[in-house]
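pasting for the record
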Amino acid sequence: MTFTTIRHDLDDGVLTVTLDRPDQLNSFTPDMADELERTFREVNDDDAVRAVIVTGAGRAFCAGMDLTKEGNVFGLDEAMTPSLAEMQRLEDPALIDGVRDTGGRVTLAIHDCRKPVIAAINGPAVGIGATMTLAMDARLVSSKARVGFVFGRIGIVPEAASSWFLPRIVGLPAALDLVLSADILDAQSTVDVGLATGPHDPEALLPSARALADRWTKGRSPVATALARQMMRRNAPQEHPVEAHRVDSLAMFHTSMGDGKEGVAAFLEKRDPEFTGRASQMPDFYDEWIDG
């Protein structure tokens, strides 16, 4: 894959995605949105990858949207007049190019990802630099991190589906305060509000993220990991636990006949399991469930 705004480095199953516009503090552009969305869609079918870490080149994680572009800096088509009804057609090319929030396209791809995703926030992360991490499974902050949902300062609203993700992480009262105050938090305050873990010494940030990726995925079934990640994300908001039970039952049925057999045998024989399942080959019900 060829990229202009990000960099990929794959090492022993862990893909490190580096936002790579250091001279612009890794500010976000429509091209970066395209490349990140593509990354998180394509990684689902790449069985060489078991986890993803996202970090920034240089001294910043991501300083938000690049506001230097001429015209609509968010890449939106001001000639269009979209309605709420039209937003039911999210795959309409005209809406993708002219109306859909670019950050939301990225976070929805992260949400749908079959691999755990970890943010290693090495410096300033504001605007989309903060909201893109909310769809990830963990956020680790360096002592140099600064995090802010600063949309109110420039007269816009929180994006990247953050009104869905943020309250689920910190609770509604804290989410409202973070958004309406538009304060920029230092690393310790980011940890204290429940957004991240740390702070980590800068040189320890990536090793800590890598250790977490290994703890979550090494010696684990890729299929069971993908299912468990999605079950937690999609079942928790359901109104009744019976909805989780429906999916639990199907997931248990399929994994019990797949990697579960090897896992049980390895446990009884007191040896490490050798799982053969692939996240690129999910059970038949998976796509219907995710798309539904």
